[in-house]
Amino acid sequence: MAAESSRVVRAEEQEELPASGAVTHHTHTRSQSHIQFQPLTHTAHWQQAPRALAHTRSHSHTHFNNSTPSHTQRYGCRLTHSLSAMAKGERGVQGSEGKPNEPLFPKTSQQTDLSQKLSLCSKLCFAIGGAPKEVAASATGFFLQIYLLDVAQINAFQASMVLFIGKVWGAVTDPVVGFFITKSKWTRIGRLMPWMVGCTPFLVISYFYLWYVPPFSGSRFIWYLGFYCLYQTLITCFHVPYSALTMFLSTDQKERDSATAYRMTMEVLGTLVGAAIQGQIVASAHTLKHCPTSNMSAGYLGNSSGAEIVKSMVHSKEYLSYAKQAYTIAAGVIGGVFVICTVVMFLGVKERDDPYAPKTEKQVSFQQAFVLVMRHGPYLSLTAAFLFITVAIQLIQSNFVLFCTYAADLRDHFQNIVLTILVSAVISIPLWQWFLQRFGKKTAAFCGITWILPFTLMLVFIPNVIVAYVVAVSSGLTVAASLLLPWSMLPDVVDDFRLANPYCKGHEAIFYSFYVFFTKFASGISLGVSTLCLEFAGYDTGACKQPPPVVYTLKLLIGAAPVAFIVTGLMILLLYPITEDVRLRNKVCLEELRKQSIGSRTVEDPSNV
């Protein structure tokens, strides 16, 4: 029966893999030192599984030529073949009096059913749950910097400290939250769902007060720093379990990829909604700023009468009052969206456990799992690549409104340009989903990210309305790719890690929390440095026109700096080893691990039937 099982798995593997004779595999190696933790179970065969798996992975990560296809197939899933044989052997001994071709316990529990196809309703509810985070992120990304400078009226250095410390604080909380999630127990609604539901009310309150201007002016820096750090902490408590929830929706890679595509589409729509709500409500405040068009000249105040100067000052007070009210209303609307979307996700998403790991009494600690994750080559290359790419996108996003206002003279169009970028991104998400299925995720990442490079430089050198809208449409393609690809590739990295470390179960949050940690930390540094650059260039808070050094600095932050970061990220992405062939092979091996794990658990505990 073991030989028969081996032939079946080998046939399944040949169906999954491409028909080409040469299969290229990623070159990162697995040594037996990666599997250091022996399970304490009743079967001695299980204790040899990690060594067999390490042997399997070391073979499967080498290069094979056309003359050795049988060698690849023979070693591709040796562990899963042997485990299936052992499980069937145990069942044969215990059920020898029955029919040999029938399993002793043919049923499995609903929680471990391998046919976990997701309904359209489940995918939509899961995707809707991620939208409010992007609604809030869009509002803060595009408008928080100019809000702190022109409405709250703290100086540029203090604004840079708020943005930098808040981002770094949010980055530090990611691994902390990930640690507590790994310690969480399963409840009736899952292990991750209580985190998201519990933090939502406090998250909405902190977000509202982040956009509220207190009546005092001396300690506004402390006010905004405190609420921004609180907001970053609570958004982490929501986002880390939500992103890790992808691995607990289904065991099917296609279903997870489909759910991720729905999620990214909805998140880009959330970004669009956030920019639309925030932009349309507060845009008039910035358009009707406290100086008329004639005031753009440098000598306007010197040539004006005293009555005109007094009128301008009164207009300034009216502008500030209107702007404060507009930002507060926008914050309340976005808070309501957050509550509604969280309730929809809670009602429509079911969290499932993944039965890939063999049963063991000895659990891998968080520290040991962290070391294994940080040594996992595909995770490091993917995280480092998209770290630089995310920094580039963040630089463009945070400085775009300032660039349109002071460097390109597009203050009357910036909200519509932002909406054009996001509409283009929403439309192109299905395009990139088709592209990655047709040509592979790594190829899609290269094509999608490089697309923005010439158009970013075009806007810097030709800052007019027509070019701005052309650049907006083209930039939407890259924004969609930068959102979809990393979250679609990260589950493949987790699967690769699971196959290399089958006993390291329950630590998926480490991948997502530290990925967010690294990207947030880098984004915080880039935002702080960019705002400091504006301070050193002589940014004048509340002024209608900025000096030439500020304009030049904004052009560098929109053009040259993002290009340099994107090129660096793409060079690192070349080292990412999980190709489509490797991903399909991992899928076959994990399916066998799940089947044999369910079989062994059924034999050990017949009461589950």
UniProtKB/TrEMBL annotation:
Primary localisation category: membrane
UniProt topology in membrane: Multi-pass membrane protein
Spans traversing the lipid bilayer: 192-210, 222-245, 326-349, 384-408, 414-436, 443-462, 509-532, 552-576
Catalytic activity, as annotated: 1-(9Z-octadecenoyl)-sn-glycero-3-phosphocholine(in) + Na(+)(in) = 1-(9Z-octadecenoyl)-sn-glycero-3-phosphocholine(out) + Na(+)(out); a 1-acyl-sn-glycero-3-phosphoethanolamine(in) + Na(+)(in) = a 1-acyl-sn-glycero-3-phosphoethanolamine(out) + Na(+)(out); 1-(4Z,7Z,10Z,13Z,16Z,19Z-docosahexaenoyl)-sn-glycero-3-phosphocholine(in) + Na(+)(in) = 1-(4Z,7Z,10Z,13Z,16Z,19Z-docosahexaenoyl)-sn-glycero-3-phosphocholine(out) + Na(+)(out); a 1-acyl-sn-glycero-3-phosphocholine(in) + Na(+)(in) = a 1-acyl-sn-glycero-3-phosphocholine(out) + Na(+)(out)
Domain of life: Eukaryota
GO cellular component: plasma membrane
Record's compositionally biased regions (Polar residues): 32-46, 63-73
Region of interest (Disordered), residue spans: 1-74, 88-108
Location of the protein in the cell: Cell membrane
Gene Ontology biological process terms in this record: carbohydrate transport; lysophospholipid transport
GO MF entries: sphingolipid transporter activity; symporter activity
Keyword Cell membrane: yes
Keywords, alphabetical: Cell membrane, Lipid transport, Membrane, Symport, Transmembrane, Transmembrane helix, Transport
Family: Belongs to the major facilitator superfamily.
Function: Sodium-dependent lysophosphatidylcholine (LPC) symporter, which plays an essential role for blood-brain barrier formation and function. Specifically expressed in endothelium of the blood-brain barrier of micro-vessels and transports LPC into the brain. Transport of LPC is essential because it constitutes the major mechanism by which docosahexaenoic acid (DHA), an omega-3 fatty acid that is essential for normal brain growth and cognitive function, enters the brain. Transports LPC carrying long-chain fatty acids such LPC oleate and LPC palmitate with a minimum acyl chain length of 14 carbons.
Protein name: Major facilitator superfamily domain-containing protein 2B
Organism, scientific name: Pundamilia nyererei
